[in-house]
Amino acid sequence: MAAMTSCSSAISASSKTLAQPPSRTFSTTFIAFQSSSSKLGFKSLTLRRCGSSLAARMVSAPAIKSPAALDFETSVFKKEKINLAGHDEYIVRGGRDLFHLLPDAFKGIKQIGVIGWGSQGPAQAQNLRDSLAEAKSNIVVKIGLRKGSHSFAEARAAGFSEENGTLGDIWETISGSDLVLLLISDSAQADNYEKVFSHMKPNSILGLSHGFLLGHLQSIGLDFPKNISVIAVCPKGMGPSVRRLYVQGKEINGAGINSSFAVHQDVDGRATDVALGWSVALGSPFTFATTLEQEYKSDIFGERGILLGAVHGIVESLFRRYTENGMNEELAYKNTVESVTGIISKTISTKGMLAVYNALSEDGKREFEKAYSASYYPCMDILYECYEDVASGSEIRSVVLAGRRLYEKEGLPAFPMGKIDQTRMWKVGERVRSTRPAGDQGPLYPFTAGVFVALMMAQIEILRKKGHSYSEIINESVIESVDSLNPFMHARGVSFMVDNCSTTARMGSRKWAPRFDYILTQQALVAVDNGTPINQDLISNFLSDPVHAAIEVCAELRPTVDISVPPDADFVRPELRQSSN
Over the range 92-129, which residues count as b (16 or more CB within 10 Å of their CB) and which as e? Predict the structure, then answer.
């Protein structure tokens, strides 16, 4: 059993421990392995039974230093050091004033093939094309699609065409490209990677916007071919956000979606500058380093947590509770979905989580604390399980198998994902949005705020204990939630996002949202109704957590403009508009 240690030196200095609910059944000491410099030592973990879940209290929590690979060297862009909660990390700031550096970053590249036209494909292809044009580069950005795909029409409408060599067959595009951005769905990557690799030129570069393919290859004992470079640039937001903020950035320099980047293989020394150039061309305000393995673990986990699955689960649970306790349906919707996707997200985005708590009255703070105290460990219970399912490869195999069930197979019928937006709650949401005044961010409802912030903090703690960098933790657990996904959910509803985001995220939300719903209903809300005392250690830890200072630093790097999402914003994935696509 590997010890879970924090990557924050601030936590290490104080040997801060996790606050615990009261012990109800037993207390047992286990021996856990812990890595300290080059030595292996032993530390004691005390596990206590809390209701139906186990909560671990660290006796000591030394910091995990980020791997040396998270530092990087670039000959084109300016690397900058930032300090997050006492830990040094390195980033590259973006901006349209850097576009003139793109030809140097992409040296040796004549064609960039963008494969797929799903969530990320349209945004990344258009941003790259526009940025390279502004840099007066003659690099061709070409879209590669399956023959017969309905997405050809949408790509043509976006300005790509067969006539000018910017639109064509997927395999011809891969064979002719020096940089191949593989932006098809995760399950499609798992089913087609061998053919993709076989069509790539030696010494070309494979670009990914998600580490899923590495996770799949690892799960079957394989790796990438050794004659290509493998990099990743992973925007911390869905494709429509990447494009929308880029377009807004034409008026305000630097508007965009933050990205992480990784260099998994570098066959000729160009990979880092190419990856950074790709990120800058997408409009990323800042780009931070990660590894492909850390990226897929945090990303797949995050989709099932605060980004989509857990949010879906908690608003379903709270809406049901509020209405069962006599609250009007429309008010209950406002106090759940509208509160989370509106004012709570807006406040966290601009001022941080503590500002949500501090904006409440004294009575409101007590409601927040009651909800936070009751929800934190149940949320962590499911998040912990989810992370380990992702890290072990179990969740990746689940996605691959689920993707294959979308089509007829072995004499069994196809089972496409059904819509979730026809239930009572989401019909109420349609009515609420139809009469909502422009700019209305909904009410700051204390109990809902306590549950949501508990979820966010529990996710942060899991990633922190698993050794992720603060840049990755904050972007994956906070910024992507409140600056990218929630504004779209505020415009169109949580159910719309669950029905229309990436295939992997939709699958994950359907699988994990009920788990969050049930555990809150069966444990957290029962604890509140039973008058369980507020865990004051939990509240104290929340108020003093070093992540708040780290978020403040990241907030200084955020775009100077908020994403603009009109109520009629069309961000349906193209393949969902065409059933035969």
Answer: bbbbbebbebbbebbeebebbbbbbbbbbbbbbbbbbb
Q: Which residues pair with 93 in a beta bridge?
A: 286
> Any residues with CB less than 8 A from the CB of 495 and at least 6 apart, and which?
312, 419, 420, 421, 425, 426, 429
Q: pLDDT grade, residue 256 (50/70/90)?
A: confident
Question: Which stretch of DSSP H or E encloses residue 123?
Answer: helix 121-134
Strands 205-208 and 229-235: parallel
Structure tokens at 262: 């990784």
Across-strand partners of 36? 39
> Residue 486's closest CA among 314, 304, 117, 238?
238
Residue pair 217/61 in contact (Cβ under 8 Å)? The answer is no
Any known ligand binding at 361? yes
Residue 294 near residue 284, CB atoms below 8 Å: no
Token digits of residue 210: 């998600």
At 393 the three-state DSSP class reads coil
502 annotated as ligand-binding: yes
Other CB atoms within a 10 A radius of the CB of residue 138 amount to 9
241 known member of a binding site: no
Give the pairing type, strands 205-208 and 167-169.
unpaired
Taking the C-alpha atoms of residue 276 and residue 177, their distance in angstroms, rounded to an integer, is: 18
**Prediction pTM value:** 0.83
Distance CA 50, CA 20 (A): 9
Angle (CA) 520-521-522 rounded to 5° is 95
Is 303 annotated in some ligand binding site?
Answer: yes
Residue 476 labelled as part of a binding site: yes
In tens, the pLDDT along 110-154 reads 999 999 998 899 999 999 999 999 999 999 999 999 999 999 999
pLDDT tens, position by position, 6-62: 333 333 333 333 444 443 333 333 323 333 333 333 233 333 334 333 333 332 333
Which DSSP helix (H) or strand (E) runs through 318? helix 309-324
Residue 122's pLDDT is what? 95
Q: Residue 496: is it exposed, middle or buried by C-beta count within 10 angstroms (0-12/13-18/19+)?
A: buried
Confirm whether 468 is a catalytic residue: no
Give the β-pairing of 259-265 and 229-235: antiparallel
The DSSP line for 255-311 is -S--EEEEEEE-SSS-HHHHHHHHHHHHT-SEEEE--HHHHHHHHHHHHHTTTTHHH
Please indicate if the annotation marks 385 as binding a ligand: no
Is residue 118 within 8 Å of 239, Cβ to Cβ? Answer: yes
The active-site residue out of 87, 199, 210, 312 is 210
